[in-house]
């Protein structure tokens, strides 16, 4: 079955969806994106993703090309057309086709480019990595300083991911001024004496939608949470570590820079939080 994607109002076979070489997203990485996960054919944490999209657009001086109802309708239609039971929907909005390359923004009335596509990922909920855990390395965080905006400038996170793979690990945690900011494409946590520790929100990290929901569910379950930065040394000495993102939900980390955490297997808190997130987020899925 050929994949149907969305481009500027049309639903097209993926090979027919074409964007200009002068698109600001292509030449300037001038665009924002969202990734929403799909379980049982339903969208998880959808209002959160729409709210963050709107914020990212505002921070870059771009308007929101569609209403919340229109965004929802497109997501649902793509899920239907592509028969997605488990997977993700990727959404991108750029400042559009400027007609040429120029550092100055094109006129405000330039139509934005809106692209959405699905990725089918059977087994997303029953991910074997949740049972084995992942190994991460640390690398310096060399990204720009507005990581709270979900832009498509993903070169450095890609390079960090490749460095992790080159070292036989699964992912990289980014470190700035001695403290972990976040993972290449996820928010990071450690657990010490039952307490969940994660960096607080600022321009240094992406305000994860999975993070927000998970911390709410954890608080409702009377779990202890402390929002503060932590170092790699503290993480290596922690009882557990894990990360969250829309595509990973909650995944345990069992090794950091070659040092095994505890017994080197996923701990009870991360395992419980994954169950809690899947259970609770499905209740509000739409
Ligand atoms: N990445 N931090 C970064 C740098 C991210 O790229 C992401 C998400 C997160 C987690 O945010 P959320 O819980 O809202 O997915 C944190 C997505 C999944 C991606 O780029 O594929």
Automatic annotation (TrEMBL):
<dbReference type="InterPro" id="IPR043131">
    <property type="entry name" value="BCAT-like_N"/>
</dbReference>
<dbReference type="GO" id="GO:0052655">
    <property type="term" value="F:L-valine-2-oxoglutarate transaminase activity"/>
</dbReference>
<dbReference type="InterPro" id="IPR036038">
    <property type="entry name" value="Aminotransferase-like"/>
</dbReference>
<keyword id="KW-0028">Amino-acid biosynthesis</keyword>
<dbReference type="GO" id="GO:0009082">
    <property type="term" value="P:branched-chain amino acid biosynthetic process"/>
</dbReference>
<dbReference type="InterPro" id="IPR050571">
    <property type="entry name" value="Class-IV_PLP-Dep_Aminotrnsfr"/>
</dbReference>
<dbReference type="GO" id="GO:0008652">
    <property type="term" value="P:amino acid biosynthetic process"/>
</dbReference>
<comment type="similarity">
    <text>Belongs to the class-IV pyridoxal-phosphate-dependent aminotransferase family.</text>
</comment>
<dbReference type="InterPro" id="IPR043132">
    <property type="entry name" value="BCAT-like_C"/>
</dbReference>
<comment type="function">
    <text>Acts on leucine, isoleucine and valine.</text>
</comment>
<dbReference type="GO" id="GO:0052656">
    <property type="term" value="F:L-isoleucine-2-oxoglutarate transaminase activity"/>
</dbReference>
<comment type="pathway">
    <text>Amino-acid biosynthesis; L-leucine biosynthesis; L-leucine from 3-methyl-2-oxobutanoate: step 4/4.</text>
</comment>
<comment type="pathway">
    <text>Amino-acid biosynthesis; L-isoleucine biosynthesis; L-isoleucine from 2-oxobutanoate: step 4/4.</text>
</comment>
<dbReference type="GO" id="GO:0052654">
    <property type="term" value="F:L-leucine-2-oxoglutarate transaminase activity"/>
</dbReference>
<keyword id="KW-0100">Branched-chain amino acid biosynthesis</keyword>
<protein>
    <recommendedName>
        <fullName>Probable branched-chain-amino-acid aminotransferase</fullName>
        <ecNumber>2.6.1.42</ecNumber>
    </recommendedName>
</protein>
<keyword id="KW-0808">Transferase</keyword>
<keyword id="KW-0032">Aminotransferase</keyword>
<keyword id="KW-0663">Pyridoxal phosphate</keyword>
<dbReference type="Pfam" id="PF01063">
    <property type="entry name" value="Aminotran_4"/>
</dbReference>
<dbReference type="InterPro" id="IPR001544">
    <property type="entry name" value="Aminotrans_IV"/>
</dbReference>
<dbReference type="GO" id="GO:0005829">
    <property type="term" value="C:cytosol"/>
</dbReference>
């Amino acid at each position: 079955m050929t994949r149907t994607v969305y481009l500027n109002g049309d639903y097209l076979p993926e090979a027919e969806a074409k964007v200009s070489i002068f698109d600001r997203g292509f030449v300037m990485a001038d665009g924002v994106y969202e990734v929403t996960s799909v379980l049982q054919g339903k969208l998880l944490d959808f209002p959160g993703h729409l709210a963050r999209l709107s914020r990212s657009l505002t921070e870059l001086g771009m308007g929101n090309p569609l209403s919340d109802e229109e965004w929802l309708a497109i997501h649902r239609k793509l899920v239907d057309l592509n028969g997605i039971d488990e997977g993700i929907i990727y959404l991108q909005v750029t400042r559009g086709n400027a007609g040429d390359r120029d550092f100055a923004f094109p006129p405000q009335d330039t139509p934005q480019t809106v692209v959405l596509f699905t990725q089918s990922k059977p087994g997303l909920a029953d991910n074997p990595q949740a049972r084995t855990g992942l190994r991460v390395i640390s690398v310096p965080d060399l990204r720009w300083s507005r990581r709270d905006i979900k832009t498509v400038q993903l070169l450095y996170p890609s390079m960090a991911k490749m460095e992790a793979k080159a070292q036989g690990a699964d992912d990289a945690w980014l470190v700035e001024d001695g403290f972990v900011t976040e993972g290449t494409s996820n928010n990071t946590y450690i657990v010490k004496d039952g307490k969940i520790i994660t960096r607080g929100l600022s321009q240094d990290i992406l305000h994860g939608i999975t993070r927000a929901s998970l911390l709410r569910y954890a608080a409702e379950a009377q779990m202890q949470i402390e929002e503060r930065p932590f170092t790699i040394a503290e993480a290596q000495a922690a009882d557990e570590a894990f990360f969250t993102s829309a595509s990973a939900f909650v995944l345990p980390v069992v090794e950091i820079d070659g040092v095994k955490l505890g017994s080197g297997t996923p701990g009870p808190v991360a395992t419980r939080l994954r169950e809690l997130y899947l259970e609770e987020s499905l209740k509000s899925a739409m």
